[in-house]
Design goal:
The chain is α/β, with parallel strands linked by helices and 220 residues long. The protein folds into two domains: 129 residues, 3-Layer(aba) Sandwich (Rossmann fold); 67 residues, Arc Repressor Mutant, subunit A, CATH 1.10.10. Helix content is 50%, strand content 13%. The protein contains ten helices and six strands; from the N terminus they run βαβαβαβαβαβααααα. It has a six-stranded parallel sheet with strand order 2-1-3-4-5-6, with helices on both faces. The radius of gyration is 17 Å and the shape is globular. The N and C termini lie far apart (41 Å). The relative contact order is 0.11.
Length: 220
């Protein structure tokens, strides 16, 4: 039996928050455990894991009263490092997207996303993947085209690590990469950990971003 995915949501608009709450009630594999209207309240809860165990996934708005979602990401990662963060916001600004990804977010969706897109993103990041709104992914690639490439770091990655990175950039999950390359899931996880460490990033979107900018992965 598949474990239930525990979700926390930080959203200050009650109507949108209640809509997501009602929608997720019908999802068998997803359980919305806690909702908060401010980042401060969520961070306080995350600092007390005895009462509030860190969620598997945290849905995070960016435009919050007090501490913003962008500011909160690094604290969330510090207090609950295993929690995957999906930004769920109205902001389609490239600067917000890049800051969120580089800070540690595993997904970035607009509030106009459908329920199926949101639930799919929750399952994807839980399984070790990344989820970016298609429009946002286009913006990110466009920013790579307009930014001068940084010094190549290709020689710091092994041939196998580059193969794994290429498959990550195509949206494959670790299990799919394992099947594609004929290696174990544990070996894939080890390669991914080494990639993150060498590129000095925290997640797949940031690794892919850095690889594009460094010229390791070609922008088509």
């Amino acid at each position: 039996m598949t474990d239930t995915i525990k979700v926390m949501m930080v959203e200050d608009h009650p109507d949108y928050r209640e809509g997501i709450e009602l929608a997720l009630e019908t999802e068998e594999r997803i359980e919305l455990k806690n909702t908060y209207s401010t980042a401060e309240a969520a961070l306080q809860a995350l600092q007390d894991p005895a009462k509030h165990p860190g969620p598997d996934v945290l849905l995070l708005d960016l435009n919050l009263p007090g501490i913003s979602g962008l500011e909160a990401i690094r604290w969330i990662k510090e207090y609950s490092p295993k929690t995957k963060i999906i930004v769920l916001t109205q902001s389609d600004q490239q600067a917000d997207i890049m800051k969120a990804i580089k800070s540690g977010a595993s997904g970035y969706l607009l509030k106009s996303s459908s329920l199926s897109q949101i639930t799919s993103a929750i399952q994807t990041v839980t399984d070790g993947g990344a989820s970016i709104d298609p429009k946002m992914a286009t913006y990110i690639l466009e920013s790579f085209r307009t930014q001068p490439p940084k010094l190549s770091i290709e020689n710091t990655l092994t041939k196998r690590e580059i193969e794994v990175l290429e498959l990550l950039s195509k949206g494959l999950l670790k299990k799919q990469i394992s099947e594609k390359l004929g290696i174990s899931n544990a070996t894939v996880s080890t390669h991914v950990s080494h990639i993150y460490e060498k590129l000095e990033v925290q997640n797949a979107p940031a690794a892919i971003s850095t690889a594009f900018q460094a010229g390791i992965l070609p922008v088509k």
